[in-house]
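Hi again,

Forgot to attach this to my earlier email, sorry! This is the prediction with zinc ion bound. I've pasted everything inline since the attachment limit keeps bouncing my files.
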Amino acid sequence: MGSGMGRNRGLIIAGAGVALLLAATLAAYRTPAPLGTDAAATVFSAARAREILKELVGDGVPHPLGSAADANVRDLIVKRLRSLGYATELQTGLVCNDFGACATPINIVATRGDVAGKDAVMLAAHYDSVAAGPGASDDGAGVANLLEIARILSVLPASRHPIVLLVTDGEEAGLLGASLFTREHPLAKQIKAAVNMEARGVSGASLMFETGSANEWLMRLYGKSTLEPVTNSLTYVVYKMLPNNTDFTVFKAAGYQGFNLAFIGDVGHYHTPLDNWENSSPTTLQHQGANALSSVLALADAPDLNPPAADSMFFDVLARTVIVWPIDFVMPASVAALFLLSIAAVLLVRKGHMTLRQAVHGSIAALANVLLGGALSMGVLVLLRFLGRIPALQAPPWIAHPLAMHVGFAALTLLTATAIAAWFARRAGFWGLWFGGSMLVALLSLAAALIAPAAGYVWLLAAAAAALGCLPSIIAAVKDRAPSRGAAEFAVLFPGLIAFAALLPMLLLLYSALGAPAWPIGSVVLCLTAGFLLPLLANATPAARRRLTWLAAATTFGAICVTVLLPSYSASWPQRVNVEYWIDGDSGRAHWWLQAASLHLPRAMGEEVKFDRAPRERFPGYPLKGFFADAPALKLAAPELTQISSSGASPAHDASPAAHGVSPAHMELLLRSVRGASVAFVIFPASANIHGIEVETPSGPLRIKLQQLRDGSTVLQAPGIQEAGLRFAVAAPAAPMAVRVFDESYGLPEALPDGKKLQQARPKNATSSQDGDVTVVQRTVYLDPAAGR
Ligand SMILES: [Zn+2]
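Structure tokens for the complex follow:
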């Protein structure tokens, strides 16, 4: 063993490498500077898109499905498309989704030139917003970008395949416009690929996170055409685990190829009044717009829009280029890396540089490093949750000041690694720890290849780098020489830094994507990478190891303290607090229901109205709890559910009972909001066993499943319900049933001063979200299947 400096050299290089990669990654993934209004007519300019966005949503008025503001935005879009020379058509009709929602959205479909009979490419975004906010980023940005791209297409020569522009309605209410398009529109069958622009935040890089079944072909196209691609196949695997859907879900189900683009920064503003024009990011607009333009043009100029279905493993390198590997390559490559590492290990044992015992201890160390790191980080998360610093389980999992914990969890990984290295340094030695760390990533790569091949690129890269990195040492060993210190350090630095580089872009997005659970997940993957740090830590001087341990421990502790001291909510990451006014049409009584994400009643609001201490379900079976308070009862007309007819014949597609020779009765019902509310709901009791409904649509009857609540009751939603109401049929139950019907209008009644007071008392670090504050009228309707037969 040499001098301290010599022994610590590997660690110093690792530290410098990590710092360099962090700086390079942060710089590479910065969103591009927005181009001005003076940019060339054929390039995408965020400044121009932002002017359009201001015209669409600059007034800050929310425009949910079916609202007057929705119609207003629609008119503006149509006017602009027509002025650009597009044949623009409104498509409407009744449609239902797979979550038990039925509505009549109005889509905008625009084309140029002769489209008839040709394979086509589509560019899509949705123009409706949630009721709580104007949706400047979700999805006003998508619409403004679509209109700027429409202008560019109008000055470019026609592409090989025509480009159809689709601006959907009712996305927020459950992908209804997209469903209507793919189900009813004559052009839907001609579309082969779509580019969809979405948002789950208001800033950050535009991520390409979802593709079609011809993934390999698509990703090569995307890599070639996109200037600043941010994409990888792991993101898609993670996305599929989240309960998020976009219009692209519908497009994909219709068999379209294509790209789904979205940005996820500043999720605190998402679906709130803060998703306004002022808060929308020009650089994000530029990134998403330029990427959407280049990818839609690449698709439109592709020779063949019917490529073979083939998956791939892909990832971008510093937002400059995309590496695409066929999925069939993943398994052989993983096996090859594992095989080469095994041979290297056998040679090291044969030549006396590592004993079997050391290899076993090294493997235990690598595993213990991950388990300890995982356990410690889960422990810290539970502690923060216990101290009330991490939101309750029902709340969105982000906090106002996460930076300290980003650093804290990274430090926790280092703390784990230094502890494990101190414990195993002597027992496992350098090569034992090398073996443990390398084998772990190689086995992980193999496991990923078996379970989710596209997800494992970080570990495949790490395993391949480990197999390559040990070559100088192995060559020395074969020549009966001891591997030099440099060669040995290279054997762990090379795979360690490659793995870290591959992991970092994903790691930097993980918190935006998942919130607090990203921390333990991030810790575990960092610990896997830190397996390559263990041999360097084992080589280092005990003094250096001690210093690192103290530094890591102090940083972790400091981060926890800072997080505990700082508030969980702020003006830019506000708590979500909605106020609801409920009238019970049966009893004539009324109440407030205040839903706060933290499950703590904001004090100022509690001072205005006296709420019950314990939160309760909104209604039986509803997943969220909130605070109740008595309220003065206004006279508002209750919604109606009328039995139009009841017959012994089964609905057209209900074949199963007929197999037993029995035709079940069915009831035709009409749901109406007498007071013109925006959304109506019907809740069928569990005992009625009603799991689906049937509606008459332009292209024939449509049977859909209803969503089931926890108590077994089922829900039909009618967002944007029109004056004529919603007609539907259900299989009649055996006995009369009591059905709960309610309708919801946005905002609180003007006639109630307490409502205004509650809204004004909502603190600066709180905001309404989603449907926002609403007025609900509910009643019970008794339906008798025997009546009217
Ligand atoms: Zn959206």
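Confidence is low (pLDDT under 50) at residues 649-663. The first helix runs from residue 4 to 7.

That should be everything now.

G.
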